[in-house]
């Protein structure tokens, strides 16, 4: 178990070429980040508050999108007390949310932002073992959840995804890109780089979404010390199945992202234009909380201009590279 099954070079080759999800075992046994349980992180953060998203444990036919959740600012100490049912929670930020009825999720937490005053902690995460030298906690995201915490089924427009499980287990429901039409994709709620499914994968409404029957789910339970590769454009619904879960992920950039950025810039421009035409002030129902605000048409055009320029620069570089290699 002390010997890693693949060299960094071989691992990168697998990550960049594999078209199926895969679980890497025995690749991170020497990573200090494996000690990042909630108790440890609570001590490191020392009373700093982070935002938690709260959703109901009851399973509805409709996905529990982030626009339909509640939000609280709390310390990890308060989160631990709440998830253990301690009396101190009766007056804290979680006091309105009964543990038996709600789950809590601190998601999309950029490690560089949370630990900006403790940069040495970034080195606890060593994506260099996967063939990405220099990539550490600075380019990673932290996810802390209670039992039942989940992410609605979606695909990421950019890159592929490496996910390290640190504490507790998470169940991943993965669907190949070929299943896209069966998952009834939507851009509302709007979030750049995320395409959501209208189907609640945990409790599908087959009367409304009959084509969902044609999907092929790949289900994997990720345990501490394992790393999951989610290839480009694979749909995923993720749920915490233990009382407390901690995961760390990093999105790996791909050449195909240049084209995806152009598509995303066009989508942003269209979504913002349509919604502002209806009611410029009514952004709450359609804008995902991860998106700070609806951007103006001028700014969206700037995004599109930059994306198109970057795409053509990449194409030009690729053509030059091919000409050099052939000569």
TrEMBL record:
It is found in: Cytoplasm. The keyword Chloroplast does not apply. Keywords: Cytoplasm. Its main location: cytoplasm. One of its GO terms (cellular component) is cytoplasm. Residues 103-267 form the JmjC domain. Pfam families: Cupin_8 (PF13621). SUPFAM superfamilies: Clavaminate synthase-like. It comes from the Eukaryota. Gene3D superfamilies: Cupin (2.60.120.650). InterPro entries: Cupin_8, HSPB1-associated_protein_1, JmjC_dom. May play a role in cellular stress response. PANTHER family: HSPB1-ASSOCIATED PROTEIN 1, HYPOXIA-INDUCIBLE FACTOR 1 ALPHA INHIBITOR-RELATED. This is HSPB1-associated protein 1. The lineage of its organism: Eukaryota, Metazoa, Chordata, Craniata, Vertebrata.
């Amino acid at each position: 178990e002390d010997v890693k099954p693949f060299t960094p070079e071989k691992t990168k080759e697998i990550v960049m070429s594999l078209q199926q999800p895969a679980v890497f075992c025995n690749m991170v046994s020497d990573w200090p980040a494996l000690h990042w349980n909630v108790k440890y992180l609570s001590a490191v953060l020392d009373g700093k508050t982070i935002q938690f998203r709260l959703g109901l444990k009851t399973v509805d036919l409709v996905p529990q999108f982030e626009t339909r959740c509640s939000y609280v600012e709390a310390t990890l100490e308060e989160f631990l007390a709440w998830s253990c049912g301690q009396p101190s929670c009766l007056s804290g930020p979680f006091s309105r949310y009964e543990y038996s009825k709600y789950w809590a999720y601190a998601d999309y937490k950029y490690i560089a932002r949370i630990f900006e005053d403790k940069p040495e902690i970034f080195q606890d995460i060593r994506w260099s073992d996967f063939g990405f030298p220099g990539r550490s906690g600075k380019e990673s995201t932290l996810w802390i959840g209670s039992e039942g915490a989940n992410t609605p089924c979606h695909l990421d427009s950019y890159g592929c995804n490496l996910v390290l499980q640190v504490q507790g287990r998470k169940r991943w429901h993965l669907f190949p890109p070929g299943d896209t039409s069966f998952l009834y994709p939507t851009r509302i709620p709007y979030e750049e780089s995320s395409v959501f499914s209208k189907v609640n994968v945990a409790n599908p409404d087959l009367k409304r979404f009959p084509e969902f029957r044609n999907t092929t789910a790949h289900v994997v339970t990720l345990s501490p010390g394992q790393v999951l590769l989610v290839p480009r454009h694979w749909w995923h619904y993720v749920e915490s199945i233990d009382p407390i879960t901690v995961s760390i992920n990093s999105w790996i950039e791909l050449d195909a992202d240049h084209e995806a950025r152009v598509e995303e810039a066009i989508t942003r421009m269209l979504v913002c234009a349509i919604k502002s035409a209806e009611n410029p002030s009514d952004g709450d129902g359609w804008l995902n909380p991860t998106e700070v605000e609806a951007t103006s048409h001028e700014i969206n055009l700037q995004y599109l201009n930059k994306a198109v320029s970057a795409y053509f620069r990449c194409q030009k570089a690729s053509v030059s590279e091919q000409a050099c290699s052939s000569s």
